[in-house]
């Protein structure tokens, strides 16, 4: 498999400025000069720097929890894994456990970070930390959702049927599904 050259010289930032801002989003313009002398202007959506978490919570070896919630970007209800921003001062694991309690009413005794992913890194600077949650017990915290989230139980043996569902389309949730399944296949003693 091809490896990325981690020593490749990054472009020099000649100028960086905020060109648009709303309550939730900031768009930044970068004027860059590449090592070969070429200059380009890029725009990117600037993240808050804290990142976010997505949690694959497994109450038992055969199943996992999903939520169905309203998504303004597509103006419909989507099925996906519990997720949310990391609060200031929180670790990834602390944020994952808080989001579980806010969104599905469980906390986890074991939280295993699987991978940090980016969504369209050419345009967004935000990252999502995918975490596997095990040994769940009932515990809830008040969340910030405008309406109650629907809790849906998924079955590992039906993961490909889930992929065929029209309301399971978020790329990060699909990545989380495969990352969690791969981890569980390689660590079959995790539920013992």
UniProtKB/TrEMBL annotation:
Q: Which GO terms describe its cellular component?
A: cytosol
Q: Which residues form the Nudix hydrolase domain?
A: 47-179
The protein in question is named: ADP compounds hydrolase NudE
Among the Pfam families in the record, one is NUDIX
Is Protein transport among the key words of this record? Answer: no
Question: Which species does this protein come from?
Answer: Rheinheimera mesophila
Instruction: Please list the GO terms describing molecular function.
Output: ADP-sugar diphosphatase activity
Q: Which domain of life is it from?
A: Bacteria
> Which biological process terms from the Gene Ontology are attached to this UniProt entry?
nucleoside phosphate metabolic process; ribose phosphate metabolic process
PANTHER family for this protein? ADP COMPOUNDS HYDROLASE NUDE, UDP/ADP-SUGAR PYROPHOSPHATASE
- Quote the Gene3D superfamilies the UniProt record gives: Nucleoside Triphosphate Pyrophosphohydrolase
**Signal peptide start and end residues:** none
Q: List, separated by semicolons, the cofactors it needs.
A: Mg(2+)
Gene symbol of the encoding locus? nudE
Keywords of the record, alphabetical order, are: Hydrolase
Q: What NCBIfam families does this protein map onto?
A: PRK11762.1 (NF008736)
